[in-house]
C-alpha cells in the first residue's frame, strides 16, 4: 500500500485492540497523524456495548515498522474540543458485569451480555437495556462533579446542580462527542457533589502507544489493569506469559504525556498500530480518584521508526519542566563547572542525559521494580547500578495508582548512542554536548 505523509483519524474501536485490530494507513516513516479522540474512561465505562474501559482511535500502521523496532511518537499539539467534563469516584453496579465491569458488561436484570441500549432522560438510570428496560450502566459515581472550561481552555470551575443539569440535557454537545463515537457521555449523570472549585487546564493523553500482541480491552493495556485479565472469567482472558510479554503499556495516564513530550513505544505487531485516546483536561500525579476530566481532543503526532530497538515497555521524554530536579538536563554553565571540578579531582566525567523508563505492575512497588528491571536490561547495567543512578540523578514518580511509574535517571550518552537514542535525547533537551 502507498503510505501517506499525513492522516486524519476520526474512527474508533469497540474497546478491543491487538493483532487482529483493523489498521488505517500506513502513514510514512516521519509522517503525521491527527487523531480526533473521544472522552476516555467514564463514557465508555457506562456504555453497555463497548468492551473496554475506553474508546480509542482505530490504530494506524507505520511504514517500515516491524516487530522488535520502536516508534518515536512526538506530541506536537493537543487541542481541547470539549466545553465541559464530568468525573468522580466509581462504584461497580452489582450484577451488571461478569468478573470485570470495564470489560464483561451485562444487563443486571435480564443478564444479556453487552446489551443494546437506549438513553431516556438524564442520570445513571437513563441508560436502559433495550431487551428488558432495566438500568444497564455497569458503574455508579459515588462522589462526582461537572466541570466547565473557559473559552480559551486555560481554566475550569466545577458547577452547581442547576448548571450540571443544563449540561446533562445537552451532553453530546458540551462533550463535543465525535460523530462516529458510540459512547454515552458521562455528562448525562448530572453530578455536582463538588461545587465552585477552580483549577487549571493542562491537557495530556491517557492512552498513547502501540497495539499489544494479544487482543485485549484498550483500558487494560498496562501492567496494573492488565493483571486482572490473567485467567479472567470472560472471553478476553490472557495467560501470565502473555501478560508479561504481549502488552505495550499504552494506557499510561501520565500527566507528562502532553504537548512537547516524546513517547518511544515498543512494536509488537507488524506496522506498530499507533493509537491515541483517553485525553484529559488536567490531572495531578497518580490520578488518585481513579478518574479525571475526560475530554475530546484534536491531537497531532509525528511518527518515526527506530529500527532494532527492542523495548519491553515505553520510554518517555517529558517536557524539561516536568523532569524531577536531579534529572534535569545539564546546561552549559553547569557543565563547564562540573567538568572543571572533575578535572581538578583527576576524574573522567561521563556525559549524561535524562530519560524516563516506564514501569508497570499490579502495585506501585511492583511497577517500580519492573521499571528498574527494564532500565537495567535496556542500558546493560546491573539492577543495583540502576538503583543508585535513580537515587542520585533521578526519581521515581507515580503515573497512575495502582501501578504505573516513571523511573527517571541520567543515562551515559555512550549508552544512548549504542541504542540509537542519543541524537533524539540531545536535541529534545538541547544538551551542551
What is the CATH homology-level superfamily of the domain at 4-82 and 205-238 and 261-315?
A: Acetamidase/Formamidase-like domains
Return the average pLDDT rounded to an integer: 98
Strand content: 25-35%
Euclidean distance between termini CA atoms: 41 Å
Order of helices and strands: EEEHEEEEEEEHHEEEHEEEEHEHHEEHH
Task: List how many beta strands DSSP finds.
Answer: 20
CATH topology of the domain at 4-82 and 205-238 and 261-315: Jelly Rolls
The helix content is 10-25%
Count every helix, treating DSSP H or I runs of 4 or more residues as helices: 9
Low-pLDDT residue spans: none
How is the main sheet built? Answer: 10 strands, mixed
What structural category arises from helix and sheet content?
alpha+beta
From the spread of the alpha carbons, the general shape counts as globular
Radius of gyration: 22 Å
Name of the level-1 CATH class of the domain at 4-82 and 205-238 and 261-315: Mainly Beta
Please outline what is shown here.
This protein is of the alpha+beta class and 433 residues long.
Question: In words, what does this structure look like?
Answer:
The protein is an alpha+beta fold and 433 residues long. Among the domains are: 4-82 and 205-238 and 261-315, Jelly Rolls, CATH 2.60.120.580; 323-429, no CATH class. 18% of the residues lie in helices and 29% in strands. It contains nine helices and 20 strands. It has helices spanning 42-46, 161-168, 171-175, 240-245, 332-345, 364-379, 383-393, 413-419, 422-429, and strands at residues 4-9, 16-17, 24-37, 60-62, 70-80, 84-92, 117-119, 127-129, 139-149, 155-158, 198-200, 204-210, 216-217, 262-266, 274-280, 297-306, 315-317, 352-360, 395-400, 404-412. The strands form five sheets. Strands 1, 3, 4, 5, 14, 16, 17, 18, 19 and 20 form a ten-stranded mixed sheet that branches. The chain has a four-stranded antiparallel sheet with strand order 6-9-10-11. Helix 6 (364-379) crosses helix 7. The chain starts with a strand and ends with a helix. The model has no long low-confidence stretch (mean pLDDT 98).
